[in-house]
Prior knowledge:
The complex is a heterodimer. By secondary structure, chain A is α/β, with parallel strands linked by helices. Chain A is about 45% helix and about 15% strand. In chain A, strands 2, 3, 5, 6, 7, 8, 9, 10 and 11 form a nine-stranded mixed beta sheet that branches. Chain A has a two-stranded parallel sheet with strand order 1-4. The radius of gyration of chain A is 23 Å and the shape is globular. Chain A starts with a helix and ends in a 12-residue tail after the last strand. Chain B is mainly α. Chain B is built from 17 helices and nine strands. In chain B, about 40% of the residues are buried. Chains A and B meet through helix 2, helix 4, helix 5, strand 1 and helix 6 of A and helix 6, helix 7, helix 9, helix 13 and helix 15 of B.
Amino acid sequence: MKADVRGKNPSPTISSMQNPSLFTNSRSSISSAVLTGCLDGACIEKLLLHCGSALESNDVTLAQQVMWVLNNVASAIGDPNQRLASYFLRALVSRASRVCPATMSFKAAGVPHRRLMSVTELAGYVDLIPWHRFGFCASNSAILEAVRGFPKIHILDLSITHCMQWPTLIDALGKEPEGPPVELRISVLSWRPPTPPLLNIPIEEVGQRLINFARYRDVPFEFNVIEVGGPLEEEETAASSSFYDFLLSQVNAAMVKVNADEALVVNIQNWLRYLPDEEISSLDSSCDGIMSYRDSFLELVGRLSPCLVTMVDEDCDLGAPSGLASRIVSCFNYMWIPFDALETFLPKDSSQRIEYESDIGHKIENIVGYEGGQRIERLESGGRLCRRMASAGFMSVPFGEETVKEVKVLLDEHASGWGMKKDEEGMLVLTWKGHNAVYAGAWVPHAPASHQNNLLV
Amino acid sequence: MNDSTASGDDSSGNHAAPPQKAIAKKKRNLPGMPDPDAEVIALSPKTLMATNRFVCEVCKKGFQRDQNLQLHRRGHNLPWKLRQRSSKDVKKRVYVCPEPSCVHHEPSRALGDLTGIKKHFCRKHGEKKWKCDKCSKKYAVQSDWKAHSKICGTKEYKCDCGTLFNRKDSFITHRAFCDALAEETSKPASVSPPSPPSPASSPPPPLPLPSEHEDSTQTDVVSLALPDNNNHVTEMLESAKPDSTNGRMLEETPAMTNLTGGSSSNGSSSSNVFATLFASSTSSGSFQSQTAGFSNIFRSIACPDPTPAIAPSSSSEPVALGLAVNQGSSIFGTAGQDHMQYPPAAPPPSLSATALLQKAAQMGAAASNTSLLRGLGIASSSSSPSVSHDGPSLAGLGLACDSGSGLKELMLGTPSIFGPKHTTLDLLGLGMAATGGSTSGLSVLMNGGLDVGRDFSGQDIR
């Protein structure tokens, strides 16, 4: 239970939450409850749970009362729990005031107040805490090992960090004792999930800079943007099935022309969670059962016969099957991790910290405030992903000793709360004070003939 | 003080000799494997961290170390008997960590010396009070901090642009994208300046409103993000900075940014929104005097409505779109102010929920313009403002009912849309009926609760 990490157990006055009519008692009891007891993580978690339940059961009165209390507890410049609570409150109020959430759309154009970073700012942003760098490091190390000896390398990069991963790989390839590869190609999609961090230049320009850098490091390099269509502006919602069908078909078409002498690597970083995981009935029933877009995409990847699939994502279950109240609580307990890490490292009024937290607030808003197609943040824990990968016909590839060492060195350079563990599936998990934060894993498809075979080998 | 002793009862075969007093070099046990005959001491965190644990029984003077205490005791000329230490003190002691979740909490994992357990406790479970100047890495133990400071900055990577990095990977990543590299390879890459997004440069930038400081020197800039007139508006607004008496008010910077987004496509609707906000929100209503500049802006840009558009409310310097209104007397007034202190460069991350509710209630009371809700950013879609051709509509909300009442009912907890009736919203024990008329309900609840508000005001809840 997170409570013991964050503070003492809640005071007895919080039990008043069990009985909302207690709110109608004397004002002083409310004020004393709020002022004295209610400032730790376990308490806030309970409040959020109550609010979520209230919203689920359409008990607006109770929801409002809880929000009132939360408002007195939350603070954008308090401790991590308070800061986090302020984002949750915002998302909940926003949700509660929308009567028919399904008519809202959550697409890139709908979040105009998100700031755009410059590319050098983004470079700093991804290194503020090892949240992203952990995945970069583990994946790059595994990729290096997998492609060693191949003259031509093609990486399909699916991520939200605008190619921040690749400079270190390019650098490492340039320093290989055998020399750099004959050709390195990186392909990205023209579409990107509408979520922070947002960049103020198009991806083509990022690619141009990478080209410059690769030239500087004497690595032959090519950068492609796979056009998957941008129908987003006219569409009601980013989550319409036609969009995902189109996306999959475009990727398939572009990638199928893979050269035989190329080593293909598919790098999926903080990206898979934006593919819907609701199961839909598949018209093309070559596969038995119902598959979600997420599953379909993985199948597609398998058919491309990559020599490695690296996957990094956030280790929390907030996907399709979760009800609102439990999702709120899980999300709160999980998002506490980066908030606490930032607290340890940066002062309360640091603008970098506030911006980072605000981006997380954006995620919270989506996770908590929306349902159905608009809820695009569908986090999935490492354990579930492993099972999904197995069903999609992949075999897990444990990370090598070299990789583990490199990641350890990386974490030593950061604050001492960061740790790492290796789980039984061979994945590496970044931990903060013992709590799972981000997982990284690597897979290869089973032999090509078995990609339709859902049985585990 | 929870001094308790228990005999250490575990061993994995390690039998280091008990240390001789101060003469022979102490033999170190393997870490985590204490001497099985040692006495296990469990100190509370308070005792552990107490600087002067060893207290002279004669004069009550405290010392950090036992040796120092003994030296001091000699000066008291104690009789022979009392001078001797009891044989018990000779026995080796090992210490457990007071943190229950720690691995060293087990007697079998006790640490050998007091300094060691102190350092461990600080490092693992303590507050990091020591901070490196150069790299802002924090340490709980002073000696750790000293050791780090010696090596910090010695291994450094420097980019051509002048930025320093401690870590190779962050250096490489930066280098790849830095403008300095672009220049070096003389490629005409179109660069954006690597500085925080400046207000005038990018489309619709949320110009952050300054934090709520009395002597704020930050720009009071409000961005409408009107498509053609960003810079123009910015400059005009900056020049229109009013003088003001300082009052406490809620500063709804996120409301601003949401308005920015929400009204980006339609200048006139945005001024409508602003007008409405201020028409119903300012308690004194006397904002006219400070808004001359603003009204001019709006007249020139958003033609139709000669409304007294944006105004800082009558008091303090920072411009706010006045969700802040019942100054000091709102229920959530001061508590909400904790939300409001943002550094100027950062886009404000959260909208005070209270202010949202409060504002909504007041809008219900004023009963006119539901485009407010779009303006407030509650409808998060930016497509909705352009739907406002029909005038006030709750299209953005997806409500099919008429203007204010739907929201009021929502807030009152008796929404027709939610179906079953709920009991009286008796949030503050005010005994108000939640149903019915245009002036009852949450708005009155909030305004009527002013007394409650005063109970809370001034209490910094943090």
